[in-house]
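Mods, move this if it's the wrong board.
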Amino acid sequence: MLVIIDYNLGNLQSVQSGFEKIGLPCVISRNKEIIEKADALILPGVGSFSVAMENLARYDLIDLIRARVKAGVLLLGICLGMQILFEKGYENGETLGLGLIKGTVEPIVTDEKLPHMGWNQLHILQQKHPLVKNLVENDEVYFVHSYQANCKDENIIAVTDYGQARIPAIVSHQRVLGCQFHPEKSSRIGQLILQAFKAMIEEKVEV
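Not the wrong board. Structure tokens:
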């Protein structure tokens, strides 16, 4: 069972629709018993880092998410959901994140207009990673964000360039994955990414 975590901050129905289009039923829930039974989790998010963590704390989901990851459950963070996978964010002050991937989330430094919004190319750094197995260099996906992850190269699967900023677009640490863009809004390429995630669940792919 795939569960989209509902912490009152994200385009939940859009994400659910994206997975259902590729034949992967999922439920939207913050119920602890349902989350504990999940084979995989989606952490969506639209908004600010600090509010996201406040909401996760309000619904008592932080320790539960960490426990499910420790138990080996696959987790995919999308947009803000990817950002809060890291240790700290600096939007509206300093806020502790989930700490599932080492690194911080800081403002994008660029001469280009912010937010970074619209279609942009992916440059794949780890072609053998199962989440990007269906992609080729320069495939385009849809971004909306003003902050970016800063982390070790080993955790970066793909990047995108925006002016002088090189932005981690897909990140990974073991069974924790993140997309800075919105795969559910990224047309055919987004569907290829969701299909790869589906295969990782069904085939119990080790990462």
